[in-house]
């Protein structure tokens, strides 16, 4: 068959078979037992490019993307403006179609980009080192906990309430078979002070304490005092970030004394894409360098003494250390890390601050406007960042459909009782939201509630 | 004589006040000081580079020019299936109706996306002969971990936690033992037979009530089809174990044979290998996991289910291992893989496998004249050479690899699998022309000749790359991991 | 101001001014008379990328593109499937952001692509040589006529009816000030044989005869006999193509004996883009090489004897020959020529034939289905290619709006009397049109006519 | 040692039967034989290359890698304004609502596109101080031709066809005289003054009743502002002539001065220079033409007009010269230019001009130490050097240009304008960093030094490019223009 993805032609195939000493190429499959071969076939015709495009365009049209709506969805995935230069650069095929840079002399560009990514993440989080990426935020957190488990030989963990439920669930899956004990420190919303509740739970058996910053509900609770308290107990602190854009304005966890800082960097130029691929980041104090999972790129010199980059400290990794590796991760999120690097390069410190500040301004405005509506209940006492919780009239089953009809995704409906009572919604306000859109959203809600 | 010799890092060309992008900003009047309590506000300086759009464009364009992908040339990297990545796939994944979908949108607004997940699961199941699939795993190793956690969970349900051994051939990829360990298993290595495949006889001594399962690739990492696979999987089943299929090598057999029919209970796929999604310099990949019906209840949640009112997410799976990843997997990658499958259709997939196997055998036939071929039989999609035949000067596989760079070819995988000395693992894939294969053979023969005439030249290669041979030991001894 | 497109910063500007010996950079503009400077200002704020995108996306949304419709518009601009690989490759910035390859050692890729383009056009048209592009089909025709005028020293031209009216109008503009006489050979549709009508018009004063192939109405009229007739009179033949895709199936004009073959190659992978940029091609017998307008790329060798490419025969061009140049063209359609080269490389002979044959199959099917409708009048006797004329019920002013509402662009309404009487529409059927779409179109027309 | 040395042409890797793209095909049963009479059917073989998508991708990726654009590095090509092309512009031009618009669609379906044309015409008129614009011309030279045909048509209307001379300075770009000739005028060359600008006194001898007009750029091709421009335009008007502004150099003054206010009657713009639309390796460009009110009736048809029921095409222009191009101009290019203008705004355009002029003067100040500067005064956006100052070995401008290639820099324009010996015309544009300018100065100083120490090296440059210095004479002597 002549197909654009299959360069060989039938006469060439026959010629090659003859060189191998065969009558027909299919003889190479004779080794597969007949009974097995018989079962492998199924019905699927080949489609030309236009037909495939038509089909997938049709499927795409069956969705209503955020770009067609005014969306207040966040909760771990964030809408942002993505610079045009970024999309162009990251799609260059030298990046896109390369494998992991195992041959550094052919991959200096990739390796340098990863080195720059590591530098930027370390800089942003205020940590000593960062690796070259993890699958996503939740798996990065799970790996951080495993690091703490293996490095400390202790078996107890404390998860402070307000952790991204996705991350919490993944953490649970990764540790279910281990002899660890997870304490969940549930805090009511009226209880902004974490330290007092945490102190009694800390013990010499505590391997690490996990805190999200800002927490899943947008609350700011991470303080130097809290990290000191943890450090004094001999436990490690693991800080989780849903959205490192906040670090444009917030003191970095490293500066507060964190041991491990991990999270989700989808905000740095990655599209929403229905949940993936995103970008897990993993930063640490240098003490943990040799316990870290994933790839690390280091600087070195070549045989002429010129500077260059290589994958390094590979003895931690599966392809060398096999069952004793610090992690099983192999293919990671390389291109997403390059995306983040380009995003941060374009935004720079001023741009990143502007994005962060815009989301904060918007969220506080919207919170104040929403909580003026009698049917809306404010559930996020200050200080909160760019996400907040309000009680929306969602008891009425027609609320979400009605809002959608008017062009709004009103936010993420929280499961009842975790930790809010009923009808609680988590709202995020990206830098794309205008005052006018937020005002119209408030009006639409008022119209919705008779 | 180049204007910018050596690496110029982003931060080295930064100039205070330069802007690369003006984001949309909120026109609201409030200030940082009003909105964020002082104790949370950043006081540590934020040292990000300050560059114009042109600076950033030139920087990353230059980095791209110092990289090498499939579009740049031949990439016969064994075990990695570096096939051509059709451009169409990128366009589809970036349709706004996919790209701008928030994962937490109401199902009524994501029916097309759910349809893609639902369809991809079904098609993967059909291609592999499995009963159910999850698309959550982010890469091959993640699929392995998911599968092994499922085996673990099933054992717990059966009160069989004493089964803590996973058998893994010594030729296996490093992720296999690493994943097994991560899932709380002990790894028992199985030595390869002289013929390069697993002999049922050799397997017997390892069979015990402690065995939870066996992980295998087929064709294996030597590129050989495990002929006795039906016996092997039966033996594991007989002692109550599960057999796991590492799908990294599926490209050899898709359309010709299905792991499910060989007796495998779990299979992961590497969409970034077999199904032509680009590897991106090391990811993102996607490692969907398929299982037979008896393990389906353990798959991660949520699952897409078909209901009279449309497709829905369902968390109703009491025996699930839970989630292995945020949200639903690498959706954008899955779009690409599905589009690739639709483009080729069944016959095309089968032909792709046939071409990959044909190309590998063609190269093997022509290269074994000058290179040691430890397992001399027809191979499947790849084969492993063991250094030069006539090698008085002791030219090493690494020297050959570095020399290939000067010909503009990405070297094969080197020193893997570990059981072959001076291994050179060659996987041409179906993305080859006969001219290209012949040119590669000529170059490999040229290297074999030069290894005798001018071996010192090879030992110092490469010469024409942006940097010469790099000192990896130095990098590990004194790690410099950031600016 | 800090703007992404302006890399210099204020402190740098001041530093540079000091090196020049100025207090302030603006002193460099002191040379412009004050009165002039005062008038230059106007109101236009800077917009960030997102705002510009929003504005233009809004404007785009005020259009109804063919991709949202079922379109039968052709008449010189053709809808085709554009391969995804083409769009990617042609947007690589090494092509996109380069200037004309005046420094060949830095431009071998561009030059080779133009050389390949010249080869492909020459091959397709059956001519000896082709240049590296013209602005578009109509200007290419005008330049061909000027070539004939200058090379022949004769002053009469014959334009055979059925020439693209856009081309005819441009030709008229380009020659209005010249002492030439244009004869327009008007043929009624019942008169398929051109030769008999042409013969009496030909004379020793005829510089060239201009014929479109297939003609504007899709008719096939170009024959070897016709070209012989012209040649015998001592005139040159200039063949115009609206759509060289047809050359996948039709005998190339070169093989029939044409002297100059020019036309519009938008069909080769260029989007409709509301009319431009498109791609004029210009091919000739080698006798006219040194009279040709535009750039030519030739093969040569470097100082080491390696093969390479350069711009050549530049003494024809304006930058050398100035007022005596063969044309004033400088910047041409380089990237469009690369687009066409990639398109033809991807399609290959089989693909090009398939596209051509699909359009022909579709047009004949649609013509036969349409002419079954009593209200529709068939105006295209065989042989026609992928365009044809029918009388549609357009006298009813609501016809076009009604059809549009149902998702159809029914074709191009011909001006009354040129050469058809009233209500004539020119229809084109691209390879994208399916039988189902054409059937639905016929049904819609029937519904439209009560 | 590269696998593919030298150029490999498309047709050289063709293999019969290979496919690169499967187009959608009509499912209707009819055959070629039934549909096309035999006398029209192709009998000549169709020798197009047959390649797979991968082959095509690799081929053109490789060609791209053997090319050099603004994204690859510094490009101070005088007269060409090689500024950075923002990536946003490409995205906008390829929005389906623009890209998939057929030019003959009914106006009700193209209001957004007509709005863009209407707006662009108004904005160009505002920036240049003209009264009306046409966007039809495809490039600068085409704008010139259109303007000259308008002058011609106006002269005919006035019965003034005896006015057949266009005055053009000897420093002018070649398109100026070529366009004038094409429009049926005679060209009279005006010599430049010692100061590099037009002196009213020097112009006087050329003023006659046969003069139809004068073509000028300002700043002129030497990069000098024509200080006496108001006198000059007045002198031409006084004898009944029109003054044409070649807008190639508008980047120097936009926001600071308008040709209309200087007395020009016609202006063309090069959107592919001043307004940041990419040059594409030699096009497509766009050369909108603006005129003062007295010439507006002659502009090409159709014109976009605003009516109560929306924007419409109007052919109602009895004195129009007609059409100069198929359809309405390079619409996609116009989108990009307009988006660029909106991005910068008035202040940004003005700052761009200021930066371009500042950068040119900075370089001029530092380079004139080693290179001859024939017109030693502040320049505008570009300046022209006349070879090396201290040049015992006779190193030529061409040698300097070729040597710059080895530093990864695109050379300045050489041997233009024709009135300067060994001309090296440098236009840095505003798309520069101070680091880059300083690096360029250092390299130019290095070349000046090497011209004394190792001149033979420079005379054989370049060394590091894919090919060495090419034999242009040979190419012209024995033209090989196709495979
Ligand atoms: C045989 C085999 N198994 C597993 C893997 C791991 O897959 P991934 O890199 O996607 O995690 C690989 C990847 O190279 C492999 O070759
Ligand atoms: C001064 C000047 N005038 C006119 C032109 C012609 O413009 P175009 O190449 O767009 O036809 C140029 C182009 O280089 C130029 O520099």
Q: Level of helix content of chain A?
A: 25-40%
Work out the helix count of chain A. 15
How can the largest sheet of chain B be summarized?
A: 7 strands, mixed
Largest interface, counted with CB-CB under 8 A? A-B, 212 and 203 residues
Distance between the termini of chain A: 65 Å
Oligomer: heterotetramer
Shape of chain B: globular
Structure class of chain B: alpha/beta
Average pLDDT metric of chain A: 95
- Helix/strand/pairing class of chain A, anyone? alpha/beta
Furnish the topology, listing elements before pairings.
The complex is a heterotetramer, with two copies of chain A (450 residues) and two copies of chain B (483 residues).
Chain A lengths: L9 H11 L13 H5 L10 H13 L8 E2 L12 H7 L2 H4 L11 H18 L3 E2 L6 H16 L3 E5 L4 H11 L5 E5 L9 H4 L7 E7 L11 H9 L3 E6 L11 H4 L3 E5 L15 E5 L11 E6 L5 E6 L5 H4 L12 H37 L6 E2 L8 E5 L7 H7 L2 E2 L2 E2 L10 E5 L6 H14 L2
Parallel strand pairs in A: 1-13, 3-4, 3-5, 5-6, 6-7
Antiparallel strand pairs in A: 2-8, 7-8, 9-10, 11-12, 12-15, 14-15
Helix pairs in contact in A: 4-13, 6-13, 7-8, 13-15
Chain B lengths: L31 H4 L17 H13 L21 H7 L2 H4 L11 H18 L3 E3 L5 H18 L7 E5 L5 H8 L3 E5 L9 H4 L7 E6 L12 H10 L3 E5 L12 H4 L3 E3 L20 E3 L11 E5 L2 E5 L16 H37 L15 E4 L10 H9 L7 E2 L8 E4 L7 H20 L1 H5 L12 H6 L6
Parallel strand pairs in B: 2-3, 2-4, 4-5, 5-6
Antiparallel strand pairs in B: 1-7, 6-7, 8-9, 10-12, 11-12
Helix pairs in contact in B: 3-11, 5-11, 6-7, 11-13
The complex binds pyridoxal-5'-phosphate (PLP) (2 copies).
The site of one pyridoxal-5'-phosphate has 14 residues of chain B, from α6.
């Amino acid at each position: 068959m002549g197909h654009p993805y299959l360069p060989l032609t039938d006469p060439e195939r026959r010629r090659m078979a003859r060189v191998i000493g065969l009558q027909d190429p299919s003889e190479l499959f004779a080794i597969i037992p007949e009974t097995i071969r018989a079962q492998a076939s199924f019905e699927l015709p080949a489609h030309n490019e236009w037909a495939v495009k038509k089909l997938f365009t049709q499927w795409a049209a069956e969705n209503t993307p955020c770009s067609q709506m005014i969306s207040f969805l966040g909760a771990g995935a964030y809408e942002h403006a993505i610079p045009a230069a970024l999309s162009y650069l990251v799609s260059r095929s030298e990046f896109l179609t390369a494998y992991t840079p195992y041959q550094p002399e052919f991959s200096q560009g990739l390796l340098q980009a990863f080195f720059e990514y590591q530098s930027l993440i370390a800089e942003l989080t205020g940590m000593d080192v960062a690796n070259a990426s993890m699958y996503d935020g939740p798996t990065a957190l799970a790996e951080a906990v495993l690091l703490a488990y293996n490095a400390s030989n202790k078996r107890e963990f404390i998860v402070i309430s307000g952790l991204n439920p996705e991350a919490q669930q993944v953490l649970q899956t990764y540790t279910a078979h281990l002899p660890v004990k997870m304490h969940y420190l549930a805090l009511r919303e009226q209880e902004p002070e974490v330290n007092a509740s945490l102190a009694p739970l800390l013990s010499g058996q505590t391997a690490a304490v996990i805190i999200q910053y800002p927490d899943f509900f947008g609350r700011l609770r991470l303080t130097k005092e809290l990290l000191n308290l943890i450090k004094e107990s001999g436990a490690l602190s693991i800080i989780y970030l849903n959205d490192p854009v906040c670090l444009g304005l917030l003191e970095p966890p490293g500066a507060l004394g964190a041991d491990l800082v991990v999270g989700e960097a989808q905000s740095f130029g990655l599209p929403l894409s229905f949940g993936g691929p995103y970008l897990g980041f993993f930063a640490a104090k240098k003490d943990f360098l040799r316990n870290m999972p994933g790839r690390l790129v280091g600087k070195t010199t070549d045989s002429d003494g010129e500077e260059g980059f290589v994958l390094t400290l590979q003895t931690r990794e599966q392809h060398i250390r096999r069952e004793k590796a610090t992690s099983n991760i192999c293919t990671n999120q390389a291109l997403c890390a390059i995306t983040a690097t380009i995003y941060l390069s374009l935004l720079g410190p001023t741009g990143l601050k502007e994005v962060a500040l815009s989301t904060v301004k918007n969220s506080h405005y919207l919170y104040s406007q929403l909580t003026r509506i009698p049917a809306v209940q404010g559930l996020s006492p200050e200080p909160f960042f760019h996400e907040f919780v309000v009680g929306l009239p969602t008891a009425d089953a027609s609320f979400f459909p009605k809002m959608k009809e008017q062009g709004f995704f009103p936010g993420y409906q929280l499961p009842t009782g975790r930790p809010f009572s009923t009808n609680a919604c988590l709202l995020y306000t990206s830098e794309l939201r205008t005052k006018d859109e937020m005002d119209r959203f408030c009006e639409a809600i008022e119209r919705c509630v008779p | 004589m180049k204007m910018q010799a050596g690496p110029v890092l982003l931060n080295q060309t930064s100039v205070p006040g330069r802007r690369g992008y003006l984001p949309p900003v909120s026109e609201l009047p409030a200030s940082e000081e009003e909105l964020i309590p002082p104790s949370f506000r950043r006081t540590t300086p934020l040292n990000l580079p300050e560059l114009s759009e042109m600076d950033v464009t030139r920087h990353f364009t230059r980095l791209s020019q110092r990289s090498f992908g499939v579009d740049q040339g031949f990439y016969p990297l064994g075990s990695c299936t570096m096939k051509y990545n059709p451009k169409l796939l990128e366009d589809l994944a970036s349709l706004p109706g996919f790209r701008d979908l928030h994962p937490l949108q109401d199902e009524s607004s994501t029916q097309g996306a759910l349809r893609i997940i639902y369809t991809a699961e079904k098609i993967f199941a059909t291609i592999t002969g499995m009963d159910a699939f999850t698309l959550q795993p982010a890469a091959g190793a993640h699929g392995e971990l998911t599968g092994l956690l499922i085996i673990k969970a099933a054992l717990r349900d059966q009160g069989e936690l004493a089964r803590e051994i996973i058998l893994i051939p010594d030729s296996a990829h490093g992720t296999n033992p690493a994943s097994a360990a991560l899932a709380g298993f002990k790894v028992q290595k199985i030595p390869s037979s002289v013929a390069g495949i697993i002999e049922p006889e050799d397997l017997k001594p390892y069979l015990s009530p402690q065995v939870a399962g066996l992980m295998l690739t087929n064709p294996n990492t030597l590129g050989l089809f495990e002929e006795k696979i039906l016996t092997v999987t039966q033996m594991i089943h007989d002692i109550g174990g599960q057999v796991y299929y590492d799908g990294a090598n599926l490209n050899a057999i898709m359309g010709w044979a299905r792991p499910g029919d060989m007796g495998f209970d779990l299979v992961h796929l590497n969409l970034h290998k077999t199904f032509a999604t680009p590897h991106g310099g090391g990811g993102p990949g996607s490692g969907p996991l398929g299982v037979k019906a008896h393990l389906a209840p353990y798959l991660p949640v949520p699952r897409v289910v078909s209901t009279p009112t449309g497709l829905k997410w369902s968390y109703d799976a009491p025996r699930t291992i839970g989630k292995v990843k945020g949200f639903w997997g690498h959706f954008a990658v899955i779009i690409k893989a599905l589009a690739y499958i639709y483009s080729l259709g069944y016959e095309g997939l089968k032909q792709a496998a046939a071409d990959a196997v044909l190309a590998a055998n063609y190269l093997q036939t022509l290269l074994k004249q000058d290179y040691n071929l430890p397992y001399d039989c027809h191979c499947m999609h790849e084969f492993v050479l063991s250094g030069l035949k006539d090698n008085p000067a002791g030219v090493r596989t690494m020297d050959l690899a570095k020399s290939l760079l000067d010909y503009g070819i990405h070297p094969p995988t080197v020193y893997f699998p570990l059981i072959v000395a001076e291994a050179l693992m060659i996987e041409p894939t179906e993305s080859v022309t006969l001219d290209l294969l012949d040119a590669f053979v000529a170059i490999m023969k040229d290297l074999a000749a030069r290894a005798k005439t001018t071996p010192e030249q090879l030992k110092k290669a490469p010469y024409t790359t942006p940097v010469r041979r790099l000192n990896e030991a130095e990098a590990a001894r004194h790690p410099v991991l950031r600016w």
